[in-house]
Amino acid sequence: MANILLGATGSVAAVRVPALVQSLEAAGHAVKVVATDAALYFFDPAPLGPDLVRDADEWPGRDAGGRYERGDAVLHIELRKWADALVVAPLDANTLAKLAVGLCDNCLTCVWRAWDLAKPVVLAPAMNTLMWQHPFTRRHLRSVAADLGAGHIPGHLDDLPLIAQINDRSKTLRVVPPVTKALACGDVGVGALAEVSAIVAAVGEVLARAAA
Ligand SMILES: Cc1cc2nc3c(=O)[nH]c(=O)nc-3n(C[C@H](O)[C@H](O)[C@H](O)COP(=O)(O)O)c2cc1C
Fold first, then answer.
1. Residue with the nearest Cα to atom 20 of ligand 1?
2. How far apart are CA 90 and CA 184, in angstroms?
3. What residue ranges of the chain have pLDDT lower than 70?
4. Between β-strands 121-125 and 179-182, what pairing exists: parallel, antiparallel or unpaired?
5. How far is the CA of 81 from the centre of ligand 1 (A)?
6. Which residue, judged by its Cα, is nearest atom 16 of ligand 1?
7. Are 177 and 67 in contact (CB under 8 A)?
8. Whether the CB of 93 sits within 6 Å of ligand 1
9. Does the beta carbon of 36 sit less than 6 angstroms from any atom of ligand 1?
């Protein structure tokens, strides 16, 4: 079906990355994962083998004094070329902020900074309730959405109407809203990663929409 690059960031919800990979593959997609260092605290990357990319893979041999040589591949660009769609799930508050302002200090955010804006993107945020409800979150989502074709979205909208407008207006971006439940930190509230099935469905929808 499609080549899906799955970005995983340092939310506790990264424990669901293996299940998400499995479901995307069951839907017929080829999947590679690019994980931040923080994401790797939450799941075992070993079963994914070479389909799991870490930040260190961008800099082969650096710790041993190795240097880039002309002709060496630039991994984040190779991943960008390979991918038909980028899915960031879970998307934590830190990486959302980086996506919004263009910071690119790891492999995932370099892929994002070099992304072909005509290709589909799915973002599935996951964070503590107060992080989710902080004004930064909506500001950053509006900013990302504006860059992906949603235009200016008024600042007063609450999170769900905001996400509905983003998903309605952008041809390439689909935001999968977090859900309400007891969070790993003990708080009960909105901020938990959406169900894996909802994320996989959003991938199918945004691929179809982008192809229409
Ligand atoms: C146990 C633990 C759980 C965390 N869960 C979340 C989370 O669900 N959402 C979030 O935005 N940040 C969470 N964080 C904070 C991020 O891991 C932290 O901001 C980190 O710098 C993110 O790096 P990254 O964006 O490069 O993956 C958590 C941190 C710890 C130690």
1. 10
2. 14
3. none
4. unpaired
5. 28
6. 10
7. no
8. yes
9. yes
Whose alpha carbon is nearest atom 9 of ligand 1? Answer: 127
Tokens, residue 26: 């069951």
* Alpha carbon distances (Å) from 133 to 71, 87, 88, 143, 191: 46, 22, 20, 16, 9
Q: 198: CA distance to ligand 1 center in Å?
A: 22
- C-alpha 32/C-alpha 48 separation (Å) is 8
Is 185 in the active site? yes
For residue 207, how many other CB atoms are within 10 A of its CB? 20
In this prediction the pTM is 0.97
The CATH number of the domain holding residue 102 is 3.40.50.1950
User: Does ligand 1 come within 6 angstroms of the Cβ of 95?
Assistant: yes
Span 126-184, pLDDT tens digits: 999 999 999 999 999 999 999 999 999 988 889 999 999 999 999 999 999 999 988 88
Q: What is the pLDDT of residue 202?
A: 98
Total count of domains within the chain: 1
141 lines ligand 1 (CB under 6 A): no
Domain that holds residue 28: 3-211
List, in sequence order, the alpha helices (H) in the chain. Answer: 17-26, 75-82, 93-101, 107-113, 129-133, 135-145, 159-169, 196-211
For tokens 């790891």, name the residue. 106
